From TrEMBL:
Organism lineage string: Bacteria, Pseudomonadati, Myxococcota, Polyangia, Polyangiales
Organism of origin: Sorangium cellulosum
Official protein name in the record: Polyketide cyclase
InterPro entries membership: Polyketide_cyclase/dehydratase (IPR019587), START-like_dom_sf (IPR023393)
Length: 147
């Protein structure tokens, strides 16, 4: 059974500006915690089919995962897929949907995440650690907000 979670963060910028920052692969190193490097695999435009390898330092080691944009509607939504079998994790499928909602003069960014395909034992264990994972992902949104 997949692990699901939702995180929200409010930005003092338009949905279009927040979307632009979230999809500006070249700026990841300016705001992303524990960032090591990013390798663009399909060019500069973050639209459906865009792929990149992102390397970050996790628990003292470098961890690289392959990201793919599966849907993008600028200023409205962004869907990402990570095939864990193609990265350091070696297993699992991660789906992240970002929704950029106008809220007053700013934006409410909601991220719905799903982790599946980890196997029964790891998914059971994952339920114990989902809070830590959510905290780390929320830290990413907060860091992006300060950029």
């Amino acid at each position: 059974m997949p692990l699901r979670f939702t995180i929200e963060e409010r930005f003092d910028a338009s949905p279009e500006d927040v979307f632009r920052l979230a999809t500006d692969i070249d700026s990841f190193g300016d705001w992303m915690p524990n960032f090591v490097r990013v390798e663009k695999l399909t060019g500069d435009v973050a639209g459906k089919g865009t792929m990149w390898r992102e390397t970050r330092k996790m628990f003292g080691k470098e961890s690289t995962e392959l990201f793919e944009v599966t849907a993008a509607e600028p200023g409205k939504s962004l869907d990402l897929f990570v095939d864990g079998k193609k990265g350091t994790t070696g297993r699992g499928e991660y789906r992240f949907r970002y929704v950029f909602e106008p809220q007053g003069a700013g934006t409410l960014l909601r991220m719905d995440g799903e982790i599946a395909g980890m196997g029964w034992f790891m998914e059971t264990l994952g339920r114990l650690f989902i809070g830590s994972f959510k905290k780390a992902v929320h830290g990413d949104l907060k860091a992006m907000k300060t950029h």
